[in-house]
Amino acid sequence: MRIAPPPLRILLSAASAWTALTGVAVAQSRPQTDQVDDVIVTAAPYGVSQRASVIATDVVDEQALAVAPAQSLGDLLSSQPGLRSTSFAPGASRPVIRGLSGPRVQVLTNGIGLIDASSVSPDHAVATDPAEASRIEVVRGPSTLIYGGSAIGGVVNIIDDRVPTEQPDGGVDGVISTQASSVDDGRSIFGRLTVGAGPFVFNVDGVDRRTGDYAIPSPSLSARKATADGVARDDNDTQPNSATELQTWGGGAAYVGEKGFIGAAYKETDSEYGTVAEPDVFIRLNQTREDVRGEYRFDAGPFSALRGNYGHARYTHTEFEGPGQPGTIFNSDGQEGRIDLVQRERPIGEKGAWNGGIGVQALTRDFSAIGAEAYVPSTRIEEQGVYAIQRHDRGATGFEGGLRFDRRTLTATPLGTTREVEREYDNVSASIAAFARPAPGLFVALSLARNERAPGEVELFANGLHVATGAYETGDPTLDTETVTTLEATVHYATGAFEGDLHVYGSRYDGFIDERPTGAIFTDGGEDFPVFRFVQTDADFYGFEAQGSYAVWSSGDRTVSLEGQADYVHADTDLGPAARIPPYSVTGRIAYASTAIDAGLEVRHVGQQNELAAFEPGTDGYTLVNLTGAWRPLADRNVTVFAEARNLTDAEAREHVSFLKDIAPLPGRNLRIGLAYRF
Prior knowledge:
The chain is mainly beta. It has helices spanning about 10-30, 60-65, 75, 225-230, 455-460, and strands at about 40, 50, 55-60, 85, 95, 105-110, 110-115, 135-140, 155-160, 170-180, 185-195, 200-210, 245-255, 260-275, 280-295, 305-320, 325-345, 345-350, 350-370, 380-395, 395-410, 420-440, 440-455, 465, 470-475, 480-495, 500-525, 525-555, 560-575, 575, 585-595, 595-605, 620-630, 640-645, 670-679.
């Protein structure tokens, strides 16, 4: 299969963005010094430094999460390069990676699937809250093999400390963080306490978050939509039915010894949020989850560690047509487990090392939808996978490669029939990469990946009106495996005052599963809805992500930095442009950092999008101006007072990847203040 080279304009755009971020810095760079770097455990079982990763990664660490906005996962990550949010409602937003979402993006907790229904529909919430995390890792693109074909678009891994993996310093540590926001009259509080007692460690945590309908800078109905429909724009100053409530609590315990740990945890999540799409419809969600995690480190032999992870979850959410009027109920009950064997690192020469790992993974999940608006039948999903990954780093050059086999089985009785249908898919994914360090601080890599994904339950078996998307959706039980071949070039550069990353990629899909209008119309309650059907076609995606920072001034513990990032993705299929592909974005920041005070001014511009699929409205570009600050009044820095003024100009902004972009702009001007205390 031939992979299409990215057009010249994308290469020129990427080069221009990289030059803008690096040109001055390279000319004024100082000799490289040793720096602490993030190790990404989501990319490989043995962990890989961000500056030595052949795939695109992002990290939101504990310090950033402590002062981050209290919002759902997709909205929190939407400003990262290459990422957007589905922005269906404040209570339901899922990450979009390089224009891909839904079943193509895996959202995990500690490497195990959430076992919720968030990939089934954009109005379904992710059954976790970012406040629970001690760290969030993002892998952009399909190259990671340890999580299977459903990660064909990327992985978001939420890492928490609910099962303790080490003894707390001094026997006790924890964090309390609370904040309030003006745009939605929001209030939230999060707390975590970890206590050690001999070899045993106990953890308890909880989140309580509440928001009202958020203020909007313009009428909720877009000017484009009003003109197209020949109607007047509304006079709303708040977004109707956008209020949220969320409570999560959990606890865990572990035995932590010299050679590893073993522990268990329990979590319960309750959430209620308006759907925005309909004025009176809201969703009430509940999930309970049990997890068991462990690791044993070997003294000798070919492997250094054995890791195990198991999770079981029961999920249900009910769509209410109004108070006391329950409608469709979605349930998901499943379990997933994985075992990883980490290969003992073997030195190569003075600076090199040979790392690797193998693993197995298994999943069973029972999904059901009950009610008048159930458009997908009850489905049983089973999956088994095995993988191997190796990295041979000689210092100046190296290679990395991996192989994975998955078997996925979906069993359902399609709506309107009495005959059970079983579809089984055997998928093989593989990747290979070569990398080099041609100069101090410079890492370059070229990777080639071929990944296969089995269709999801909606793509195979949907047959009914889907109110959230405003269409009658029909699946196709005969859909075949979706295959993508991706070529990606990576550059990491860090020397003296400058560091930056550039990723340029091109992907060719064989059997891309796309939802396309049939031309038919379905009428329900006097309202017409277009009929869409899942079909397979070929598709080409290409794009880039660039980011960099340069310390323009430093004195003691004080630093002033210029930071920037840009991203772009383009997607075409044999049937025309792909739907809901985000437009380009460019972000610039000036940041001041010191022991006592941090401050930053950010300007983010998102372009307009007029390359559209059938029935898809376009969106105008917008510019957001944001101001952030943090103050640590105590010498030990355990207390942080933080504030943010977001969208200072009260600009109208509409997220193109959202199904609700024409009836729900992003929030207007917002002042957020908070306090975080670590002990």
